[in-house]
Amino acid sequence: MLHFSPAKTASVLLTLLIGLWLAAPNLMPANWVKAMPSWLPHKTLTLGLDLQGGSYFLLEIDKNAVIKEQVASLRSQARQILNDNKIRSQAALQGRGILVTLPNPADTEKAVQLLQVLGNPADGNLFGTGNRTATITSSTPGQVSVALTDEGLRDRMTRIVQRSVEIVGNRVNQTGVVEPIIQRQGEDRIVVQLPGLDDPDRFKNLLGQTAKLEFRLVDLSMPVDQAMRTRPPVGSTVLPSSDGGQNYLIEDQVMVAGDELTDAQASFDQNTREPVVSFRFNTNGARQFGRVTTENVNKPFAIVLDGKVLSAPVIREPITGGSGQISGNFTTQQAQDLALLLRSGALPAPMTVIQEQTVGPGLGQAAIRAGEMAALVGSILVIGFMIASYGLFGIIASVAVALNVGMIFGILSLLGATLTLPGIAGIVLTVGIAVDSNVLIYERIREEVRAGRTVLMSLDAGFARALATILDSNITTFIAAAVLYFVGTGAVKGFAVTLGIGIITTVFTAFTVTRLLVSWWYRGVKPRSIPI
């Protein structure tokens, strides 16, 4: 067990060298790292929210808004299907569904069959799997009930949350925040952690906006004041302006949707020099926009964002180039944020910020100092105990543990991991686990010495017989770390990552590096007894 061939020795030393080489940039000033040649490692650990400060947001999808939108969609589709098949009907909202009333009860059975398509799974595949989104039943002639299913609603929420995570990620990444953490939590929530963030109010506004952009025509059939006193015409709605200055009577039909945009950038109007947002449509959007502006010259065209009118300019001439601009008395920052929202895409459902936490840089520095102090004191106590208990072999174990910690930092840097307080706790725990492995080896060596074996046989047997115990204990701990990683979230995952990596490096250093150092000592000293 103590014999190391030149090739084996070289492989162990090369592994150690690579690990320490990857960890080295963490000990250098940032300007040194930037000045190093490109072939040298540049990756360093990113400090988490609890260490460098920043903001934490917990967002919640508006489930009621999702249900309301789906029910409205069911109502519209049901009307269209029955009208296409020349079946007269009326559809009224009924809880989480609609009630279709048929003047001719003889049409009931046919209507039920035609409306079955409304329940088809949205994500069904070639094998027909997937949950039905709605049930279509009739218990009374002349009436058909269409109700959303719980399974279909859960599938819908899953897709909405997944899409929302992508869009929130796009919004955050375009602002330049380094190493944001954006992940799903539960059925309808999203966690957003932004390390180093210094303007939480701006991000709260960015994250909370749906950014649903629509181009609609202004309804000129009735003054807006009269529509507010009485009721708007069918197919139109009174909407406020974004600045709260006035109201507009806007047609419900969306002429062009924001989904057709391919780009949006903040710029300045060439005539007024005011901040505006310039946009560009895709081919389909450009065609629709050109048709609408051609057919409605000299009519106002409203630009609506999340139910509020940004502006309602009069169409002076057809706009067929597929581009335009949005004005609305913006500041430069507001124009930049609006352009960012439009580029990122609209959220599939409204979200609200239900929890917000801000960690200042000072608190983060205090956490770093506390973590460093805990790691330093713990390491000193452990090293002191090992030297007091095992003498020279305690020093060898301490060297192996130091190399172990260096390799952990190297692997974390290679993976681009984020270091948090729980991560530091995982590293400190790893030091204890690494020392425990060395204690097992040394106690086995002591047993062999007491049994009267020679120095070489005691060393060899100690390492050989402790291997199985070391592997068993570390494998069970690794399984626990894996469970924490896959089941836990946030800080728990950070702890699990450092603990899991530490277990792997511990097995390597405790059994291989320690054994190599002991082998060198034995060959160089040729001892007649073991100082342990």
From TrEMBL:
Quaternary structure? Forms a complex with SecF. Part of the essential Sec protein translocation apparatus which comprises SecA, SecYEG and auxiliary proteins SecDF-YajC and YidC.
Identify its protein family.
Answer: Belongs to the SecD/SecF family. SecD subfamily.
Q: Which residues form a coiled coil?
A: none
What keywords are annotated for this sequence in UniProt?
Cell membrane, Membrane, Protein transport, Translocation, Transmembrane, Transmembrane helix, Transport
Q: Which residues form the SecDF P1 head subdomain domain?
A: 237-349
Superkingdom of origin = Bacteria
Domain Protein translocase subunit SecDF P1 residues, every copy:
161-219
From the broadest rank down, the organism's phylogenetic lineage runs: Bacteria, Pseudomonadati, Pseudomonadota, Alphaproteobacteria, Hyphomicrobiales
Please name the SUPFAM superfamilies in this protein's record: Multidrug efflux transporter AcrB transmembrane domain
Instruction: List the transmembrane segments.
Output: 373-392, 463-488, 494-518
Q: What does this protein do?
A: Part of the Sec protein translocase complex. Interacts with the SecYEG preprotein conducting channel. SecDF uses the proton motive force (PMF) to complete protein translocation after the ATP-dependent function of SecA.
PANTHER family, sorted:
PROTEIN TRANSLOCASE SUBUNIT SECD, PROTEIN-EXPORT MEMBRANE PROTEIN SEC
Keyword Lipid biosynthesis found: no
- The name this protein carries in UniProt is Protein translocase subunit SecD
The way this protein sits in the membrane is described as: Multi-pass membrane protein
Start and end of every Protein export membrane protein SecD/SecF C-terminal domain?
352-521
The record's subcellular locations are: Cell membrane
Matching Pfam families: Sec_GG, SecD_1st, SecD_SecF_C, SecDF_P1_head
Q: Which organism is it from?
A: Labrys neptuniae
